[in-house]
Structure prediction request, 485 residues.
Amino acid sequence: MSSEPGRLHESQQLGTHIGEILRPTTWSEAVELYEASPNALPVAGATDLLLDLSRTPDAEGSGATLLDLWGLPDCSQITISDDDVVVGCGVTHNQIIGSPNLDSALDVLRMACLEIGSPQLRNRATVVGNIVTASPANDTISALVALNASVLIESVGGEREVPIRKFFTGFRQTILAQSELVRSIRIPRWNPQTVGTWFKIGNRTAQAISVVHAGIVLEFDEATSLITKADVAIGSVSETISVSKSLSEYLVGKDLDAETSAAAARIVASEISPIDDIRATAAYRTSVTETAIRRALIDLSEFSTSQSRAVPLLGWVANRPTPPQLNLSPTTEVACTVNGSSVAAQIADNSTLLEWLRTNASTGTKEGCAEGECGACTVMLNGAAVTSCLVPTAQADGSSVVTVEGLAEGSGLHPVQQGFLDEFAVQCGFCTPGFLVAAAALCHENESPSADEIRAGLSGNLCRCTGYYSIVEALSGLPTGRDSS
Ligand SMILES: Cc1cc2nc3c(=O)[nH]c(=O)nc-3n(C[C@H](O)[C@H](O)[C@H](O)COP(=O)(O)OP(=O)(O)OC[C@H]3O[C@@H](n4cnc5c(N)ncnc54)[C@H](O)[C@@H]3O)c2cc1C
Ligand code: FES
Ligand code: FES
Prediction:
């Protein structure tokens, strides 16, 4: 695409910066503020929103107004009652992953959360943000649809609960009306005869947008073991998540064996009409869906799933301190403890924590992609590894930040730094600060990670010099039991 002479190409134009941040202290205040400021954009972990802003030219130049829901105290809770599990709008993917054994119904959601982005991303990105973005490739949606979840929506006009199957109206579109916020997601609890699973086919093991993903939940009759209910939801194959009606009709009343599983998978594959895109052809999507559904059903018939593997979390347990200032603007001075020292500086045009740190405190923290993909900007925010390019500066106000400059103690290198030196795990060095901070968070969580755990823990960090082998070697067998929070 060519530009007019004298005009920047679309890709060269600056996106929208953050103008004002409105920060409610309670949920009811949030609802009222949203009614009073209908142009404000609700924000939780900001991993989708900041990218959208960066890709939207700021026509009026005044910046976006955000309604900050991240620090709201009662929103980051997972609540369990006799009938359901309620996931608040501030609950992150790593919070779901890091709460095993809360309830078996959450296992299916946990499997989806495990496959989202990278550990750093999962420390910020929320489940509610994932459904409101409403891309059919968003992984938690197929899990929640299969789980028959419902969405609790609120505005000053009142509240309503909508089955998640009716929440999506089209590609990236939901039924949310002006001034309505999602408060939480409600997932019905299972009876003992319920089993479920979830899978994702992607082109790589981390940071992969799904080629296809699906959630499956089956209920069996206790006496006969015949299927009494079958919910299958498939993502990335149409504009919204598709729910297979014929599959459920076919499976109910049947015994689940290999033959039934294969026939059921053929039914699903014949029902979908996926798109061809850069990630996969339609033919591949159809074929892989059939194979993956068949295998998933066979696993379920043997009751061998619903066990999600453990992965490093890189510090999700970090607290969310009460934000010291309510409404912020670019002239507001934000104060953080960076590597143990107080740093206070205006937000100015530093919309992201990465920009603010590089301007005021840490040139060691690098900008690679500025889109959450490469991990070069990784810092620890209140103990959790995050990609600082996706953290609005205002959300870091009052926080404790550790950058690569804060890992060493005096002249003593952090063990992960020493490991990198010993194994020559540095080539051009651009990715190294991000790797070191992520590695320190990993080793803080797990003193002697295995090679697989190292690979999983560092899956959000890319090295363009491709020195991965020596990086894994550098972290194998380290004496890393020191406090790096
Ligand atoms: C590098 C990268 C990799 C990714 N990988 C994956 C992946 O593998 N799988 C996947 O599914 N997703 C992926 N994502 C997408 C993203 O991380 C998720 O969609 C995330 O869960 C969004 O949550 P958030 O809290 O960051 O939302 P935000 O960015 O804060 O908000 C997202 C949207 O929801 C709105 N919103 C937020 N909270 C509310 C509320 N309570 N009420 C009403 N509206 C609200 C916002 O206005 C915005 O429109 C990736 C993103 C990045 C940047
Ligand atoms: S992930 Fe932040 S700069 Fe690449
Ligand atoms: S050492 Fe060059 S990018 Fe990793």
